[in-house]
Amino acid sequence: MRGFKGGMFGGGFRMGRKFAAGDLQLVILALLDERPCHGYELIKILEERSGGFYVPSPGVIYPALTYLEETGLAEVEAEGAKKLYRITETGRRRVAENREMILHTLAKLERIGEKMAYVKRVFESDRHGADEGDDGDFMQDGGDIRAARMLLRSALRMRYPWSKPEAARIAAILERAATEILQGGRPETQG
Fold first, then answer.
1. Any bridge partners for residue 85, and if so which?
2. Quick check: 76 and 42 in contact, CB under 8 A?
3. What are the φ and ψ backbone dihedral angles of 102, each rounded to 5 degrees?
């Protein structure tokens, strides 16, 4: 399967492994710079920030944490059966050296999370009937229409942000659709 580069979520994330090992290690260090965490907490933080798009497995997180510990970028404190990971001063320097890339990557994850949340809201609102503000009877018999509205909203959201020419193209498509709906299948009248 092809990745999302230039696709639905943009930004070059691939299916499967979303990060190169070194990038993931830097992101983990940045998260540890925010606060000490257990491996499971790091998985949850990445899942939340990406809106469920990226949920690293323990088989990815724990080897990365082991590497960070072995290279002196993080240290571990045993808490019973759990391990609490903390960033070291060397790790903080590594984060500072790579701050721009880390911020870019975390921002990308959060943008994807926002898009995922939006798509989820669209699906939820259409699954439960008319949108807020719609007359409840308006869509009573409109299962096909509801599905088409959902598809339209998703398409618009995924194309956003758009350039001025792209906005003009989309507006023209929507205007043509509105005109056809208003005509009710009748040919345009000459006037």
1. 37, 76
2. no
3. -65, -45
Instruction: Please say whether the beta carbons of 119 and 154 come within 8 A.
Output: yes
Amino acid in the structure at residue 108: K
Per residue in 3-28, pLDDT (tens digit) is 333 333 344 443 334 567 778 999 99
- Which amino acid belongs to residue 57? S
For residue 47, what are the CA distances in angstroms to 38, 85, 111? Answer: 14, 18, 13
Rg (alpha carbons) of the chain, rounded to whole number:
23
Class of domain 21-123: mainly alpha
- Can you read off the two tokens belonging to residue 13? 């994330």
Q: Could you tell me how many residues make up the chain?
A: 191
Q: Which residues, 6 or more positions from 89, have their beta carbon under 8 angstroms from its beta carbon?
A: none
Q: Which of 15, 31, 18, 178 is nearest to 102 (CA)?
A: 31
On whether the pTM is more than 0.85, the answer is: no
